[in-house]
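[stage:ingest] chain + small molecule (AN7)
[stage:ingest] validated
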Amino acid sequence: MNFLDNLFKSKQARTSSFNRWPGLINAYRDYLNIDSETEIISLCEGNTPLILSPAIAKACGVPGLKVYIKFEGANPSGSFKDRGMTMAVTKAIASGLRIMICASTGNTSAAAAAYTACARSLGYHDAKCVVLVPDGYIALGKLAQAIIYGSQVIQVAGNFDQALNIVRELADKHPIALVNSVNPDRIEGQKTAAFEVCDQLNGFAPNILCIPVGNAGNISAYWAGFKQYYNFGVSKTKPRMFGFQAAGAAPIVLGKPVENPETIATAIRIGNPASWHMAEAAVKESNGLIDSVTDEEIIEAYKLIHSAQGICCEPASAASVAGLIKVSRQGKIDPEATIVCVLTGHGLKDPQTAIDSSQFSPIKTEASMDSVARALNL
Ligand code: AN7
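[stage:predict] done
[stage:export] tokens:
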């Protein structure tokens, strides 16, 4: 019997549970590498909605297709990174480390900064977070988060891959916790998203999971989670894993590192993913695929997700939907399939792209009903 089965049994339990989700480590403790003594550093992350999306099904050209969105923007810092970060910071603090460091295209830094602040709230006043971000290539909201959560922000004149090499070297030489997804605790926490998807689909994995790929930690974590839930008998099936990279930053698709990755989806502007081999194994073992989508396809999907479905995601997240639309138009999708697209981060992190990608020209009027009515041709 798993946690959610118990939780949602009666209306009374359901109503009270809404206010008492205990965070994903407590919720899935039985499936995670954590002992009962460890103090948990949590912002009640996880338990994100799974939303049916008729608009995406329609865009795929298969109106009855069951396409769900796993909306990871609903996590406390606005992305799936919170899942890995609750575990990574919990373990780092438990092992006596007080300085967290990461390289980031933005979301990892926001999450690391948030969970370090949470550690301070629990009495670890000397907990500090240092984040290295590619100068000029991080969405404004993410930079703002790293700053306001109180981390030390270092803007590197280089890309993510270079910044990751630097923090790896630093963490090798100093007593600092590296909280990028090369840290296995991150993958451990992120597995819980796969558990949730199976719980939300009543004990089944979807037939296909579509997910954006950057540093390739998340696709690896989901696959580990699906396999574990299946092996433990909690989920009756496993999905095919469909990973999508941005065309200008598609090293796995091309089969070689990309020295100067470029894409409007800055979150996945990564040329040499750390979990490359794990991602390839996930695709191979699950009979999945890895493909690329152009910036135009990403922006088309990004607009659709907002204006036709009402969900707010960032451009990198839309790569999962753009990829699904692409492969379904190629006839690769069984119309009976159940599909989950992971929307990895919240759109409010990147308002500039929202405005730049639309032909928005404000209508200005005097502050009177008549003027507004005239502007509306009423
Ligand atoms: C919204 O924050 O790499 O393939 O440094 O922010 O696990 O890297 C972000 C990655 C997808 C790709 N969607 O996940 C970082 C960082 C969003 C992201 C990805 C990221 P991975």
